[in-house]
Amino acid sequence: MHAPMLARGPQTRLAAVWARKPDAARDLARAFGSVAVGSHDELLDVCEAVAYAVPPDVQADLAPVAARAGRAVMLEKPLGLDLRQARGLAETVSATGVPNILVLTKRFHPSTGAFLDRAARLRADGPITGVLAAYLHGFTLRGGASTTPWRLDHGALLDLGPHLVDLVDAAAGPIRSVRATGDPRTYLTVSTEHDDGVGQLALSCAVAIDSALTRVEVFSDQGSARWDTAGIDHDACWPVLCAEFAGAVRHGTAVRADVERGLSLQLVLDAVSRSLTEDRRVVLDE
Known about the structure:
Layout: H1 2-8, H2 22-31, H3 40-45, E1 49-51, H4 56-68, E2 72-75, H5 83-96, E3 100-102, H6 110-125, E4 128-136, H7 139-142, H8 149-154, H9 156-159, H10 161-172, E5 177-183, E6 187-193, E7 198-204, E8 213-220, E9 223-228, H11 237-251, H12 259-278, E10 282-283
Parallel strand pairs: 1-2, 2-3, 4-7
Antiparallel strand pairs: 4-8, 5-6, 5-10, 6-7, 8-9
Helix pairs in contact: 4-5, 5-12, 6-10, 10-12
């Protein structure tokens, strides 16, 4: 997704491609009218911003190098495979002050902004007392490019979880505690507590469904607001993301999801993981 988005522009140009497999870098560069380079350091020499599409632990190693070199960074979720990696990356990017954006693709769709606006109006009229949310997928059953080792090892929590946690937290208010049951590699449920309400989240990357189900609904005594990706054009996210990143690099304009947001989401993911391991409710910041 990253290469065609950046090559399409018009605010960006795909200056070069680097991959750990040289043949893959050459093929991708050729497909989008760019050039392949032989190392991450060479990549930094020929660009002013770097977009990472690598496993989280690799991103946690490489992105700080780019930030210290003064390069803007487009970061994937999660920031790292664990909280330590995420913190190290976030601290370095924040300390350097380089422009950055987090690829929470669903945040950049117009329907998402409309949903969050409706949820904000509900919260202004009184507390949101309940949330129902799910992100269900079947990619581990079907195989393909998404079935990478880190996704198979960590399941839906680290891959799909950031999207769902981000929207639930943004719509219903900060998540204060979590209680998780199930298995991230098959089917996981998470009970959340917020300042004024509670939520129930479901995550899976191993269910036999025809297309992904992504849905968030919030409730109050004044009404409800619902967000559902069924039928939306997912490609509409990418031009918005690209333009927002270019604006941050060129003009210092704000983005709707950055490395600090990524770290706050990773704190919730870590709490969910600890809840599973310790079989208890985990309070954030404890």
